[in-house]
Amino acid sequence: MAELFKALTVEEARAVLTRYLPTKKTVTKVPLLESLGRLLAVDVRAAEDVPGFDRSTMDGFAVRAKDTYGASESLPAYADISGEVLMGHMPQGKVGAGRAWRISTGGMLPSGADAVVMVEFTEELDKKSILITKAVAPGENVVRKGEDIAAGEIALPAYHRIRPQDLGMLSSIGVTEVDIILPIRVGIISTGDELVAPFESPAPGQVRDINSYTLFGAVAACGGVPQYHGIVRDNHEELRNVLEKVIADNDMVLLSGGSSVGARDVASEVIDSMGEPGVLFHGISIKPGKPTIGAMVGDKPVFGLPGHPASAMVVFDLLVAPLIRSGEYSVLEKDIYMDYPLQAEIVRNLHSAAGREDFIRVRLFLREGRLCADPVLGKSGLIATMVKADGLAYIPAGKEGVEAGEIVRVKPF
Ligand SMILES: Nc1nc2c(c(=O)[nH]1)N[C@H]1C(S)=C(S)[C@@H](COP(=O)(O)OP(=O)(O)OC[C@H]3O[C@@H](n4cnc5c(N)ncnc54)[C@H](O)[C@@H]3O)O[C@H]1N2
Ligand code: MOO
């Protein structure tokens, strides 16, 4: 069992978890329209070219580009109209020298033609002939066969999370069923004698449960399947019994509260007693979120998140979200800066102890075109601080605070 509050750095916590995390994934087939937001289990290759033929991207005339060379308004090129492309049909015939075929946007280019002149750059002399007032280069106003994706190419790689545009790509290559990784089921438990459900009226000394709800939303937002398991009292026996069932029913468990060092803080002892290897660390050198427990019970990660609502969300974001999102546990080793893509000017001085990574809730705004981050003041027990914030700013361990005007890295919510 890990020593109480021998705090690890985030990097160390990620590394120790990574050592124990399972690599297995469960794969299932779902209809294309049910795959949105899921992770692909395998590389998906295109079996055929898309488009399957050269297509016009404009309404106009299909021509041989070289017949238009030098054409201008003052010296137009002349062409005979020798055919018309019907949408959805293969043109019967060939575009010969000095000829043009009427074509609509999306129509199949007739053989012989290699470009399309937009209708705006033509003048119809009569039903049979046009003047072309602008030259086109070969391939102009045309999408080539296989230009969207070529037969044999990987359309989408394994572990890719399917977005709306990916549904379009899959439909274009005729994929109607998709192999996805089954989303991680995450059991959520709130602990505390003071907690009541949201539909209850809290008596003096009681508060409504917040963490089950924020964590439920956070799991779903990452593409996991949250399972609400309610409130458990600060009691060894009760927590053990609930935890046993929740671990059995899920791939991962999130407990919140009882992770500190108080007399009622039972989480660490109970988690450690559930099975090997047990608690891997208890305490991370971050603010907020120091009293965090990371454990594995068999091949299932179990996290004891701090009770303060903002702290629980910050730790979730740091350690839990990457696991759920990626479906591939090794991503925990990724550089933290990858997650903080924005650079913003902090607008107040902030203190931070050296040797501790700080995650500051910030409001974002633009000042004279520059992105600025204004820290949201308030304790980590206040959910309103998360509600008012637009993101988290990151202060690395090596820094003893930041001064107004300094650039910080920010992750938007
Ligand atoms: N002497 C010390 N006290 C505390 C320390 C410390 O280092 N020494 N750490 C503080 C920090 S930082 C945090 S964070 C909290 C962590 O506490 P626990 O994880 O043990 O959680 P609890 O004591 O059960 O609760 C803390 C706080 O959060 C409220 N809470 C808990 N669960 C929920 C929930 N589901 N919904 C809403 N609010 C919740 C609870 O009522 C407490 O107010 O410990 C500090 N103390
Ligand atoms: O870590 Mo506590 O989480 O600072 O509020």
From TrEMBL:
<dbReference type="InterPro" id="IPR038987">
    <property type="entry name" value="MoeA-like"/>
</dbReference>
<dbReference type="InterPro" id="IPR036425">
    <property type="entry name" value="MoaB/Mog-like_dom_sf"/>
</dbReference>
<dbReference type="InterPro" id="IPR036135">
    <property type="entry name" value="MoeA_linker/N_sf"/>
</dbReference>
<dbReference type="Pfam" id="PF00994">
    <property type="entry name" value="MoCF_biosynth"/>
</dbReference>
<dbReference type="Pfam" id="PF03454">
    <property type="entry name" value="MoeA_C"/>
</dbReference>
<dbReference type="GO" id="GO:0046872">
    <property type="term" value="F:metal ion binding"/>
</dbReference>
<keyword id="KW-0501">Molybdenum cofactor biosynthesis</keyword>
<dbReference type="Pfam" id="PF03453">
    <property type="entry name" value="MoeA_N"/>
</dbReference>
<dbReference type="GO" id="GO:0006777">
    <property type="term" value="P:Mo-molybdopterin cofactor biosynthetic process"/>
</dbReference>
<dbReference type="InterPro" id="IPR005110">
    <property type="entry name" value="MoeA_linker/N"/>
</dbReference>
<protein>
    <recommendedName>
        <fullName>Molybdopterin molybdenumtransferase</fullName>
        <ecNumber>2.10.1.1</ecNumber>
    </recommendedName>
</protein>
<dbReference type="InterPro" id="IPR005111">
    <property type="entry name" value="MoeA_C_domain_IV"/>
</dbReference>
<keyword id="KW-0808">Transferase</keyword>
<keyword id="KW-0479">Metal-binding</keyword>
<feature type="domain" description="MoaB/Mog">
    <location>
        <begin position="187"/>
        <end position="326"/>
    </location>
</feature>
<comment type="function">
    <text>Catalyzes the insertion of molybdate into adenylated molybdopterin with the concomitant release of AMP.</text>
</comment>
<dbReference type="InterPro" id="IPR036688">
    <property type="entry name" value="MoeA_C_domain_IV_sf"/>
</dbReference>
<comment type="pathway">
    <text>Cofactor biosynthesis; molybdopterin biosynthesis.</text>
</comment>
<dbReference type="GO" id="GO:0061599">
    <property type="term" value="F:molybdopterin molybdotransferase activity"/>
</dbReference>
<keyword id="KW-0500">Molybdenum</keyword>
<comment type="similarity">
    <text>Belongs to the MoeA family.</text>
</comment>
<dbReference type="InterPro" id="IPR001453">
    <property type="entry name" value="MoaB/Mog_dom"/>
</dbReference>
<keyword id="KW-0460">Magnesium</keyword>
<dbReference type="GO" id="GO:0005829">
    <property type="term" value="C:cytosol"/>
</dbReference>
